[in-house]
Every structure is written in structure tokens, then in C-alpha cells.
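Our example copied in:
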Amino acid sequence: MSTAEQPDFFSLQQYLEIEENSLIKNEYIDGWIRAMPGATNRHSKVSLNCACELKRLLKGSPCEPYCSDTKVRIRNSLMNRFYYPDLQVVCDPNPGTDVFQDRPVLIVEVLSPSTRLYDLDEKLNAYLMIPSLKCYLILEQHQPIATAIFRDGGSILQQQYQGIGAVIDLPFLQVSLALSAIYEGVEFTPTCVQESELEYRDTSNA
């Protein structure tokens, strides 16, 4: 069913039924559904590198990473949403039969042209409403640049890390995440965003 044929509003139950049978991933934003675009090989490599490094660092810990096939649910008096973050770390997981997590402590998004505004605005505001979240980590895919937004009680602290030698301390997980591990094997470009926006729009409407 094309986007033009879809009704404007879906109940939560309708969304979950659609997702169960869908060949593509869809996010749910307070009653409407947004199809997710595809990702470049560079995007996938950055995301996988980060997941593998966190898996290694967290071995023996009750916390573990979940990749982009697992949704995060955000449910409160202001919003009812399901997103597919590129990566999330959870220390108090939902049952294994669930298709989402409710209590991530870390969420990671790798920026792409089509999702950049969502990741830096809509998702930022939504993720910071998750009570368990300690850090939202935003990664560029074309340059070794990371922005970490830490939440400690009622305080928000934003810290940028730049350069292959930079290291992100994650004290709530008792680990440090090196950009050299996140960007291992990634071919950098002079600027941070180069892919055609049209290429992404075509993918998201497929």
C-alpha cells in the first residue's frame, strides 16, 4: 500500500499489526506512520562497529547492545511512539518475546541526509523523555565526529568529540568508547553529508 493510499491516522494496534507483516521498517509517531529509508554501506559500517565495540566492552555486564531491528517504545502523557534507533544499550531488558525495549540507558543514531533533522530535533526531544536514558550519542558517518548528550538528573550536558583519537567516557556503563573503534575501516570524505537527498527520498517512498 502506497503512502498516498494510507489513512492519516493509525491506532497503536494497527501499527503493530502492520509491522508484524511489513517488509520494511516503519516508525510510529503519535498516530501516524513513517517508513524508514535505507542506509549506505558507510552508515551500516559505523553502526556495526559501534555495536561490536560496545558488545566487547560490556562482556560480563548486565547491559547489552541491541541493533536497529529492535524498536524503542516511548509512552507517556505527551507521546506514544516507536522508533528504530541504530543502536541502544539496555541494562533492564524487556521480555525476549517483545519486539521493543522500554528502558535503554544509551541510544545511538548515525546521521544520514534524510534522517538528520529527525535525529537532531524530533528524536532528540523524544529520547530525552525516556526516564532510564543516560546518553544520546549522535555519530556523523563521513567524519570522525560524535556528539554526546548526557542526562544526569535534571541536567543536560552536550559534549562533542572530534578526531580519530577521541574517546567518549560512558561512566554509567563503566566503559570508554574510542572513535578509532567506531570508525575502523571507514573511508572519510571532506564534508559530513554528501549523498543525494533525492536518493534517500526515493528509498523511503518505495
About this structure: The longest strand covers residues 145-152. The first helix runs from residue 12 to 21. The chain is about 25% helix and 30% strand.
